[in-house]
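Crash report, auto-generated. Payload:
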Amino acid sequence: MLRLVSFALFIATWWIGSLLIGDAKLPAPPAVLAAMVTEAKSGALFLNLGATLARVALAFVLAMALGSAIGYLMGRVRLANRLGDPWLILLLNLPALVVIVLAYIWAGLTEVAAIAAIAINKLPTAVVTLREGARALDPALDEMATVFAIPRGRAFRHVVLPQLAPYIAAAARSGLSLVWKIVLVAELLGRPNGVGFEIGVAFQLFDIPLLLAYSLSFAAVVLVIETALVQPFELRVSRWRPRAA
Amino acid sequence: MQLEVDITGKHFENAAGERHDVLAHIKFSLHAGEVGVFVGPSGCGKSTMLKILAGLDRDYQGRVSHPAAGRLGMVFQEPRLLPWRSVEDNVRLAAPDVDEARLAELFAVLELSAHRSHFPGELSLGLARRVALARAFAIEPDFLILDEPLASLDDALAARLREEIATLVGGRTMITLLVTHNLDDAVRLGDRLFLMSARPARIVAELPISMPRSARGVAEITAIKAAILRRTNGERSEQDVS
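Recovered output after restart:
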């Protein structure tokens, strides 16, 4: 209910703003909705959203898997941390644009280059978060697992992984928002489809309704995924906590 | 089956590089069915010794021969339960082979039957300690280590839990090693008492109590305690104190 009120307030503000600034710069909601319907009818909207979503999913999974493994290793093994740390700092501070442009130059304007570039941008934040998680593992529980001779695999699943879960959730949350932001830049620069590409086209044509139609559709998809997937997952992994914040 | 311990020294270096001797010479052996109790002042190195005996710390001088292929059960000073697993799952994770009947019996003895599906965060410290006990007994250990399992419980609860431990220890032939700083616990549960010195710890006296646990009433316990105090103040021998 509160969410609906909040949404209505947003539309109202938008509409009033559009009346004040003028249709040329900020089209009113019906104009944007019309653009959205046209794109949806031609199928282009879903094709582009789908392409973007697929890239997001692939890059996200790749970066999370690799980043978690590297972060865990760096948190547990001092040598790995020493070796990896300079690279980590470099990657953390490398602008996304540099990675994307270099990936396209070296690997061509391909899907692989785009996904790899997005994943590389997200990777270091996952590594840093999981490294903190691995460092915060409770040695008392490790000792318990050793004393009771719990096999490594079982101990990892039942003793280590639940301790890492909040860190994995945090990495997923911050990582996903990073991927949402970067994927459009990668598409703008070197893909022939996707929301980023369409926004680039709309920008060149100065077609503001089209630009807003794609931006808002994209935002809606992000919102649905965050509330339908990410938040329930976070709730599930922390259900044993007496009262989650 | 027996446990033979001959630790000649253990030290560690702190962050400033200073050397701290924790254990001096500790030599004893325990047979299956015996309960050895270590009594000593807080911070004397008892927990360090237990870590070595449990195989968690291999950086020491000397030798520890474990019971061959023996299963180790341990109750740590803190319960060390997994907060994200229920009481039953905590026990089953350590003891995957435990059958339902045995588990039900253990939970009944330790009065945990009503708490099976609770998470450790919902338990009091006394209950959590019982779960730790259930976990250690569920694996049917050959070698059981109890590190101050009754610390920071009120007297009535500690007494009840002590009886429960006595029941469980009596029901199985194993080597049991109990660390405590409470002489009452020591005298009620132990077959042999080892009195430890302050850090660096060594064994200052070894006192056998031959009277069976079940025969020790209030009067006997008081007498044994008096004998122990006499012994620690005076001569050192390995004569029976009961």
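Post-recovery validation: Residues 2-71+141-241 of chain B form a domain with the Rossmann fold fold (CATH 3.40.50.300).
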